[in-house]
Structure formats: C-alpha cells, structure tokens
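Risk register update: the risk of archive-format incompatibility is retired. Evidence:
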Amino acid sequence: MPDIHHCTLCHSTQFRVIHARRRWRYLRCLKCGLVSLQPRPTSEALMKSYEKYLPSSPQEIRKWEMMMQPIVHASADLIEGMTRQEKGRVLDIGCGYGFFLGEMKSREWSAEGVEISGTGAAYASDKWHIPVHSRPLGDLDFPGETFDVVTLFYVIEHVIDPLDLLAKVRRILKPGGLVFLRWPHSTPIVLALGPFSRLFDLYHTPYHLHDFSPETMKRLLRRIGFCGIRTQIGGYTRPSGLIAGLASALSGRLAEATFRLSSGRLLLPGVSKTTWAVRPNEAHHT
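Archived output:
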C-alpha cells in the first residue's frame, strides 16, 4: 500500500497507482476517484518553486498571453452573464501576469490579485495598475464577505489542501458571491493510454498535486458549503507550438460542440473544465 494516510476528499485509504514518474506516484482513490500525488512536496518547497515558476522574457510572456486569451475572454463573459449586477469586486488567486484581471478592469470591475511568483506579481501590478499580493491567501487579512467573485485559473490542482483553500475563499466571498475555477482533467487520458502514459507528463509532475473530475469537483465544493455548482467546457487554451495548438483547438472545439449538442449533459473527458458555484445566503443555507 502506498504511503498515504487518507483521501483528501472522502478519507478512504484504498488507492491504485495510475501513473509513476521518478520517485512520485499518482494514486486514484478507489472510493471517490480523486487523484493525488505521493509523496507530496512541503509547503515551503512549493512556495520556493513557484517564486520562479513564471518566465520573465517578453517573448515568453506574450506566449502565455496568447495561450490564455480565449479562456480570459470566455470566462469574463460567463461571469458577467451570471452575476448580472453592477460591476463588482473580483479577486484572482494565482493571477499570473494578470491577463484576466486586466480584462475585468477594462470592463470596469474592481480587480485585485494574489500571485506568489515575483515576476508575475510585478508584471500584473505594473501593466494593469492593480493591487497584487505576493503572499498566500491564508497570510492575507481580507475581511469576511469582501468580494463578489473569486477566481482560480489552473490553481486548485496545485494546492496541498484544496478544502482549506476553498474554505478561505468562501469566507471572503459575499453571500451570493461566485467562486469560479478553471482546472485540467488529465486522468481520463492517463487511464486510456495505460502504460504509454509514462511517455508523457500530463500531470506536470510534481506540480499537480491533485487531478479532479466533474464529480470530485462538485463534491469538493459541496463539502465547503457552496451551492448552484455547474461545470462546462468554458473554452480552450491556445498553446504556441503547432502540434499542441492544433490538438488543443480540435479537442476544445469537439468538447464544446458535444456539450452544446447534448444540452449541457455531456462533458468530454480529458479536456480542461470550468466550474462555478455560489456562496449561499446564510438564511437559506442548510
């Protein structure tokens, strides 16, 4: 049995190794399906690695911008369509270079970011003239019920304790506020490839500490007390490489078409997903 105490989500101790890379193993919970990395890096090691996670050259930053542009626009449209209110206050956790926050600011939202990478935090602050905090959310003293929307783009899979992070997000959201997540869904491809998955590093080992499915993401958010949970495709990234770009476009368009033609019932496995949920008004929360 691998050296793990229990599943983060359901506390089961029954797992199966589905991917191995050097000294790391990805374990799939046999009860709920959540995938977790073992052994996990320490919090200190993670913080140190993310300080230098983002490149600083203008060419590389431009590649990141082009890659994320479709997701930024699709997500901003989704959020404004769901909130249907006066422009509110948005916090983007793991904001990177601030592309999403720049978009929301251009739409007259009050935008703020959290970014561990000094390169990303400095760029976002200087480029978009927005406040960016370079410490983890738990080290910041935001008052409760501060934000209308909190976003996490490709962040939740990097977190040692996603339940704890989402509990902190819930605290700083206003009642009726929206948490909005973008996350990869790599495990179906790993399982389909079987032994050949060792030729690829779909989990970006050891940076991805968890891999979620729509079901485990829903269970995670419910555990924290969110309601109105919905998942859809929500666009696709545009990588700079020719092959990667074509693969992303083809799989993304297929996933979006499948989702629409099934009236939102079918989510193509193996492609990134967008999930949102609402902090309920306490008087109506059970």
